[in-house]
Amino acid sequence: MKSITRIHGLDTLRALAILLVFMNHYVLFVTRRAPFSFLGEVGWVGVDLFFALSGYLIGNQIFAGMRSEDGFSLRTFYIRRFLRTLPAFYVVLALYALWPYFRAGLTLPPLWQFLTFTQNLDLMPGTAFSHAWSLCVEEQFYVLLPAVALLIAAMRRSLVWAWVAVAASFLGGMAIRSYLWNTQVGDSEGGFAYYNAIYYSSLCRFDDLVAGVALALLKNYHAGAWLRLTSRGNWALAAGLAVSALAFHLFWDDHYSYGMTVFGYPLLALGFTLLLVSALSPGSLLQKTAIPGAGKLALWSYAVYLTHKQFFLLLKPELAGWGVSTASWSGIGIMAAASLLGGWLLYAAVEVPFMKLRDRHFPGNQRPASTPAEPALSTW
Questions:
Q1: Distance (Å, rounded) from C-alpha 20 to C-alpha 22?
Q2: Helix, strand, coil shares of the chain as percentages rounded to 5?
Q3: Can you list the pairs that 71-75 forms with residues at least 24 positions away whose Cβ atoms lie under 8 Å?
Q4: How many whole angstroms separate alpha carbon 167 and alpha carbon 175?
Q5: DSSP letters along 124-164, please?
Q6: What's the rounded Cα separation, in Å, for the pair 331 and 62?
Q7: Are 224 and 177 in contact (CB under 8 A)?
Q8: How far apart are CA 88 and CA 65, in angstroms?
Q9: Do 123 and 196 touch, CB atoms closer than 8 A?
Q10: Half-sphere exposure (CA, 13 Å, Cβ side) for 142?
Q11: 207 near 269, Cβ under 8 Å?
Q12: Sequence-separated (6 or more) residues with CB below 8 Å from residue 135
């Protein structure tokens, strides 16, 4: 596997994302008496942080490929993406499908929903592997984004149309959430209706992904604006922390209201995008600070995400039998150690070999020399 230069800021954000998700699932599925109750209650935003990171990283790959001399290969992009995400996912899915003990008594939705990445549509909370809903949203986005970018380019449209698509995505998401809240949720204070109609819905959850793509678009096609923006990395860090903290508080206080449903997700996307700007700004505190362990946790985060919740469900009765309180730091430590070990094993045994295979046969997203170049976005 080729050497990759690590960006400390991105590693920190990815490690933070999995920690937030860990705390949220701990509070939801293990005990609400955990000492990190506030962060546990709002820790679901870790998924949104993953979305923002993915939007930027994938968008940057696509736009950089479209600007390169060799051009962008849609086929190679899909192959690389699937070799990165699908093998570990399939291994975990096989555990759920073939090993009843691993399901911990939960009902597994039909396999075709996982295989087609449509499990998040009309998802029933409390089913086995329910947290794969976010991977479904990302995979749908991975398929859609390059096709939209190439369509705009093929129409010989300028960057104006790319930014119009970004703005339309935000406005469309807000309009869809408004309509669904009014017609299917109302003042029900969350529950099944909210999660089924809005929280798990692809059309309602693209805000962070689109924000990350917008940042990648800015980097690749507006060099002057990008340099000015990233020259103020510490200001971006302060603003990102302030906006994110505000979003956390508002969601914690009134998660299921109409206002937060419509406007809260774009606010969260703004906060995370500012943090991304800081992470990518040369010399910023976030970019230059290497937090011990964050790099490893970032590498293992996908595998940990896939497996940690099931370790919670399997270990919870075991800890009770051993007389270890799941609300104690010792119980949390055991859960965390099991999650890290399981994630590392999945990463080392499955992710690494397939990434080596990907880098050996598909080292980049460029098109083969014998194929025609894909169209590129034109300037203003």
A1: 5
A2: 75, 0, 25
A3: 71/366, 71/367, 71/373, 71/374, 71/376, 72/146, 72/150, 72/365, 72/366, 72/367, 72/374, 72/376, 73/365, 73/366, 73/367, 73/368, 73/371, 73/374, 74/146, 74/147, 74/150, 74/374
A4: 12
A5: -TTSTTGGGHHHHHHHHHHHHHHHHHHHHHHTT-BHHHHHH
A6: 43
A7: no
A8: 26
A9: yes
A10: 25
A11: yes
A12: 85, 89, 117, 306
Please list the ranges in the chain whose pLDDT falls under 50: 2-3, 379-380
- List residues bridging with 158 in a β-sheet: 378
Kindly tell me the burial class for residue 100, based on how many C-beta atoms sit within 10 Å of its own C-beta (0-12, 13-18, 19 or more). Answer: exposed
Q: What is the reported pLDDT for 327?
A: 96
Which residues touch 127 (CB under 8 Å, ≥6 apart)?
Answer: 106, 107, 108, 109
Any idea what the Cα angle at residue 190 is, between residues 24 and 45, rounded to 5°?
Answer: 30
Distance CA 13, CA 281 (A): 14
Give the tokens for residue 245.
């903290």
User: What type of residue is 300?
Assistant: W
**Structure confidence by residue, pLDDT tens digits, 194-221:** 999 999 999 999 999 999 999 999 999 9
Q: How would DSSP label each residue in 45-112?
A: HHHHHHHHHHHHHHHHHHHHHHHSSS-B-HHHHHHHHHHHHHHHHHHHHHHHHH-HHHHTTPPPPPHH
pLDDT at 218: 95
What are the backbone dihedrals phi and psi of residue 72, each rounded to the nearest 5 degrees, phi first? -105, 135
* CA pair distance 182, 169, nearest whole angstrom: 20
Q: How far is CA 178 from CA 11, 137, 204, in A?
A: 34, 20, 10
pLDDT for 3 equals 47
Model confidence over 8-62: pLDDT tens digits? 999 999 999 999 999 999 999 999 999 988 899 999 999 999 999 999 999 999 9
